[in-house]
Amino acid sequence: MSNPGLPLKLSEQGFGPINLVATQGMRIAWSNDNNLSGMYWVDRWQATGFMPDIVAVNLGANHIGQSNAPYCTPTDPSKCSTLIDQLLNNIGPTTLVWWAKVNHEPLGHGGGYSQGMLGWNAALDRAAAQRPNLMLWDWPTALSTASPGISMDTPRIHPNSGVQYVKRSTLMATHITAHMAPSRYVGPRATLPAGDGTGYGYEPVAPAAVYTTPTDGARFTPTETRAIDLSGEELVHPEATAVALTVTAVDADTGGWLTLWRCGDPMPPTSNVNFGTGETRTAQVITRISAAGELCVFASTGTDVTISMQGNFLDGAGSALLPITPVRPLDTRLTGRAQQHTVAVPGTGVTAAAVTVTTVGLSPGGSVNLYACDAPQSTVANVSFQANETVASAAFVPVSAAGTLCVHVETPTNQYTDVIVDITGVFGVTGLRFAPASGTRILDTRNGTGGWVYRHRFMQTIDTVGAPPGAKAVTGTVTVVRPQFRAFLTAYACGLPLPPTSSVNANAGLVMANSITVGVEATQQTLCFYSSRNTDTLFDVVGWWVEPTV
User: Fold this and answer.
1) Alpha-carbon distance values, 440 to 35, 278, 476, 527, 540 (Å)
2) Which of 117, 175, 276, 298 is 20 to 30 Å from 136 by CA-CA measure?
3) Parallel, antiparallel, or unpaired for β 134-137 and 256-262?
4) For 132-169, what is each residue's pLDDT tens digit?
5) What's the gap between Cα 12 and its chain centre?
6) Is 428 exposed, middle or buried (0-12, 13-18, 19+ CB in 10 A)?
7) 3-class SS of residue 420
8) Which of 491, 237, 507 is CA-nearest to residue 360?
């Protein structure tokens, strides 16, 4: 009916091989004619070894029935759900599925949608809510807003000519590519912000809260920006130019985020902590503070907030960072669960370590506290996790004189969770000093910021220039956005082998952020991101690490 058709349109976008089955009267299952059965063709593909990464489905119009006797309705889509589930189960849960909703207006344009169409599309919505591998295309909306418009037959099910089919195939290919294709670099790179000074040393402190609602202020209201004065806090050095913090959102009204920055500067278009409704969510935040010791906080929704100190950045004092190839000194999936763990930190004379701690496995939910083993147990949670959740959070953790840090797992019962500790750098006498910058988004696959477009595909590595010439490491926030399956991202210096670690984790459909401090490739200052699943990926830089000047 059309040339170029959908296979050629997809091939032009880099897809292939492509196997297309299209015929009049096709249904999900049809006992009288295998050629008209979607189930038959999926079985045939699998039997002959054709195992696609993506299956695009445009079935349903032959199942909706007449407007006066629909097969299913919006209030009872169960029969349609049974058919849809039958095909999805046959395809399997590890294949990405793109499915077009149906359009049916029995009275012609402007006559309203049929009950059968609304019932079928309701069943697709139900399936998408339960299956993270399913992506829907809203064909009725795409048809009504198409420019140029698409001429259809009287019930507005089929385009009425080959030319009109080409228009529809173009829309389909565009949507499939945007949501299913591997991310592609088209440029340009994002512009880096200017860094402050020639680099500051890091001075760790014993973790403790310096601000909490409602003790030090009322609960944040939606879209509120609040200036917090840290100048009188004993743990905040009076000459600190920047601070490392643990920031926790507690019992949020709705899903949202927190953004922190130096008061007096414009609010950056970034986020530091992402959370869902009613959750407790914790993240490391590294930010500049004003000369008066003020820190500004924006909350997108109503929530309580706790801010705890990890350390200060000082001019001419403090420890230097030595980035290391990421290592995993603790993985209780291999060693066994417990409430208390001791972790050996690589190196000598280490004052603190740049750590990512991840919780994984069945559990009732809880928190994990990290602290130097020769200090009292910390009361500051570095990661908060919901029941049966995989989640990661970063911290600069003080290290004991013996070179160890302690991990305490707190849960409502003695059913502890598995804990993973990854170390990406250590602080000591020699190494790099921190040049803080205004938070800037330099990678966003949703809109092409940083040059990468389309979603970050599973097992794909993309990169960004994360620091200016001469810098050896970078600090920022990496965010995984609504992965189709439970996913993790790993950030590491480009040019090195992929390390056996993770930087941020998220369950299917969630938005999760985590701070990272890792080395960059020495020549072009590139930072690589590996994705375990199909997702969108963001990176907000807040500074980099440079050689000290004499």
Assistant:
1) 54, 28, 9, 15, 5
2) 276
3) unpaired
4) 789 999 999 999 999 999 999 988 899 999 999 999 99
5) 28
6) middle
7) strand
8) 507
For the chain, percent of residues with pLDDT exceeding 90: 76
Beta bridge partners of 406: 342, 371
Q: pLDDT for 336-381, tens place per residue?
A: 999 999 999 999 999 999 999 999 988 899 999 999 999 999 999 9
Same domain, 310 and 326: no
**Based on the domain organization, do 229 and 298 belong to the same domain?**
yes
9 token code pair: 């349109």
In a domain, 193, yes or no: no
Which H or E run includes 29? none
**Tell me, what amino acid is at 548?**
P
Q: Are residues 417 and 469 in the same domain?
A: no
Residue whose pair of structure tokens reads 């130019």 in the numeric block:
241
Looking at the structure, tell me whether residues 80 and 136 fall in a common domain: yes
Which residues face 464 on adjacent strands? 527
Q: Pick the last residue of a domain from 428, 458, 477.
A: 428
Encoded tokens for 502: 């993770």
Do 267 and 251 lie in one domain? The reply is yes
The b-or-e profile of 494-530 (16+ CB within 10 A means b, else e) is beeeebebbbbbbbeebbbbbbbbbbbbeeebbbbbb
3-state DSSP of 220-281: ECCCEEEEEECCCCCCCCCCCCEEEEEEEEECCCCCEEEEEEECCCCCCCCCCEEECCCCEE
CA distance 265 to 462: 31
Q: Which of 385, 403, 428 is the last residue of a domain?
A: 428
Quick check: 480 and 506 in contact, CB under 8 A?
A: yes
492-527 tens-digit pLDDT: 999 999 998 899 999 888 899 999 999 999 999 999
Do residue 412 and residue 493 come from a single domain?
no
CB atoms within 10 A of CB 233: 18
Distance (Å, rounded) from C-alpha 513 to C-alpha 258? 11
CATH number, domain containing residue 86: 3.40.50
Q: Structural domain tally of the chain? A: 4
- Tell me what percent of the chain is helix, strand and coil, each rounded to the nearest 5: 15, 40, 45
Antiparallel, parallel or unpaired: β 96-100 and 134-137: parallel
Helix (H) or strand (E) holding 359: strand 352-360
Q: What does R_g of the chain's alpha carbons equal in angstroms?
A: 27
Q: CATH code at 205?
A: 2.60.120
Its domain, for residue 419, covers 320-428
Q: Which residue has the tokens 């080395």?
A: 519
> SS in 3 state form for 530-548?
EECCCEEEEEEEEEEEECC
